[in-house]
Amino acid sequence: MKNLVSKIKSKNSVIGIVGLGYVGLPLALRFSEEGFPVVGFDIDEAKIKKIRAGESYIEHIHASDVRAATARNFTVTTDFSEASKVDAIILCVPTPLNKYREPDLSFVLNTTESLVPYLRQGQIVSLESTTYPGTTDEELKPRIESRGFKVGEDIFLVFSPEREDPGNPKFSTKTIPKVVGGYSQACLEVGMALYGGVIDKVVPVSSTRAAEMTKLLENIHRAVNIGLVNEMKIVADKMGLDIHEIIDAAATKPFGFVAYRPGPGIGGHCIPIDPFYLTWKAREYGLHTRFIELAGEVNTAMPKYVMKKIAVALNEREKSVKGSKVLVLGISYKKNIDDMRESPSVFLMEKLRDDGAKLDYSDPHVPVFPKMREHRFDLKSVALTPEVIQGYDCVVLTTDHDRFDYDMILKNSKLLVDTRGKYRQPAPNLVKA
Question: Which domain does 195 fall in, by range?
Answer without folding.
Answer: 2-206
